[in-house]
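ok so for the tutorial part 2 we go from a plain amino acid sequence to predicted structure tokens. step 1 is just haveing the sequence, like this:
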Amino acid sequence: MQGPAMTRRSTRFLTAALLLAVLLLTIGTTHAANSPGSLSTECPQAKDSTTFTFQGHRLTETPDITNPELRLANAALSAHCLDWVESFIQRYRVTFPDDYRLFFLKTRQQWIIFNAPYAQSFAESVLQSHPDFTSAKVLLASMALEYHDLTTAARWLREIEQEQPDDLWAYIDRLRIAAQLAPTKELLATLQAIVSDERFPETARQQAAQTARYEMLGLSQQQRDAVFAEQMKSKPSDADCTLADQAINIIELRLDPKAGVDLIEKYLHKHNPCAATPLLHTVLAEAWLWQAAKLSPIADKSNAALIAKARKELDGDFTPVAQRIAWRTFLNPVLPLIEGAVDPRQTDERGQTVLCNALLALNPDSLAAELERGADPSAPCDHDTPVHGLLFMAATDKVAERQQILRLLLQHGAAVESLDFCASPDNGDCHKVLLPILQEFQNQRQPTRKSI
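step 2 — the prediction. this is what the tokens look like for a chain of 452 residues:
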């Protein structure tokens, strides 16, 4: 149950009469809106977990939260039905303003949306008022593990063991620590058993798989792949996300695009789509193009079939592949194969064009390809011109790449700017490695200015 925090809403000054009026006005609509029927319609995958025994351990998720509505809302959080949960929180806290357990949901919500510092501070503040709220301590233990702070996590877990020995997530977190400090074959078998045991909440099974694949020391690649296969066998709701992660590992870290293609084709379309499903299609096209580039550096008869497969996979638009190449210089050989099928104005989910990503990644080959496609060398990247962004980049390495990128931008018409900044020795190595190029182009353009 990994997730996160919120600001506390004070209710101390509500009069009894006002509270009663609020209750009378909202109790009917609140219970109707938050009934299991509404949840089953808006978030059918949310199911409250039960108490069960696993390998001699009696386990319950959040045993100190007994309110059925709160438990169902917590299950909806795990299912990432965030809009429904936010609506539930707003209604519930009007009806039950003093139920501090509601803020467990808000803490998890903030953690899930990557607001971890806020989540942590809120969990700590709730404990100051309610030091016996053990589930908040479980969240703090899990957060400490995310920060790789095993000492703090262990301290919380010792306290939880005394107060709430049946807590499911405390059990999962103890396994995570053991995986990093004392990995054994028996522990791996336990984690694999959790992955395939549907009595565990799906989030717990996902965490067990993540622990085995990425946190457990000493595992062979074959053992990690076996955990992945167990995950896919259990048909998780985020199967495509799990598949994308494994496929990228095989293609880009093990440098085996063919094996990555085989894996994607084995599992794609056999599970419900998730946020990573479009990424899978991009990675599949990327792998085909990479294989094509190994056959020939240009598009010809030897690699035409592979390029055609990739083109069909992305409906003829190779811009998503170009976005990935920008950050992966080992894929630069693919660049000649995607000519004519990339939109230099299209942006990714962060609002960045391929040129901007090539600049940030210091990939001159990718940037040069974009400029040749007609990308604007002065179009803003994070509200800065590319030249300005490059000069202000906090970098002391990749000197040749930075020099080549600056020269490319200026050759394609970008303005010479920030000369004074770059000339100052207080601003890194700009005066040594980039200022001479700026001055060269300034001098080249000066006669034109004089003649005008």
